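Researcher: Here's a chain I'd like modeled. Treat it as a single chain, no partners, no ligands.
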Amino acid sequence: MSAKIFVYVDHFKGKVLPTSWEIVGAGRTLADQLGGHVTAMVVGQNVEALATQAIQYGADEAILADDAVFADYRAEPYASAVSKAAAGAAIVLFPTTTRGRELAGLSAIDLNSGVITDAIALELQNGKIVATKPVYAGKLLAKVTCDASTQIATLRARAFAMPEANTTRAGTVTRLETGVNEAGVVAKVTGYTQNEGGVSLTDANIIVSGGRGVSNNPKLAPPAGMDDKQAEVWRAQEGFRLVGDLASVLGAAVGASRAAVDAGYIPYANQVGQTGKVVSPNLYIACGISGAIQHQAGMRSAKVIVAINKDAEAPIFKLARFGVVGDLFDIVPALTKAFKDKLGK
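Model: Modeled as a single isolated chain. Structure tokens:
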């Protein structure tokens, strides 16, 4: 029997995360080497179109769990559906997203396996996957295997090539009767809070990030009546406005260091780093970020890193391909203007 490669398609209410198609492409590559086939799993409500898309991106077939009980993501019912569909698979791949990591762990329990997390490359040895993943905050790379009969791995976003969709590609979509019903689900979703609009950090080709340095503009006089902490945050928010202006011109996402979010300059949703989001953009511009190892762990796989910092000894310069030593409050507006002129904006 040919090897069964199983891939999970992550989405939010029918809006697919692009990294899902990267996972399908990675599964296709493995299947072609093993002489196997790729099965995509889609869970949700009114998401049959995603099953069809998965086939267009390289899956041979799709399993669809489409029911009102899956209208909102909840770990228990989703994991139950995924585990049932993936039973007997040789390899199961998830994206390294919040939902993907959670489902990988829960599915591993059901399938009596372990999980290789955050892989950035896959190869095969004797029919088993060997995954390359960053360790020690990204300073080293390790090769990891899973000895279980069902090998489970999560793959880092943008670490694998995005396949091209072939709209003429055909495959079978099979509906899965999961046996999950609302009465048996303990968790309930009462609502959602929408983050501010903008480009998603995880999917962004370009990211412009700010650190504590964005609060150090001596030319800005805060409004009267502010204490020192309020004045610091006010200056930082003005600094992040410059970061946001540059990001807007480049069609980029806005990121931040942990120091910046801990200080209250910007929401935690913008944090890049070991305890924030791990990103792999084509271009990463770090403004006023010293480059602590925890921050580097979240962005060191960017294709090109540009650092702007007035401290010539800042660790970020050791990682950057291009470095500008100087005051970000002079350099960032100049860059924004230059890009506006170049791009005709």
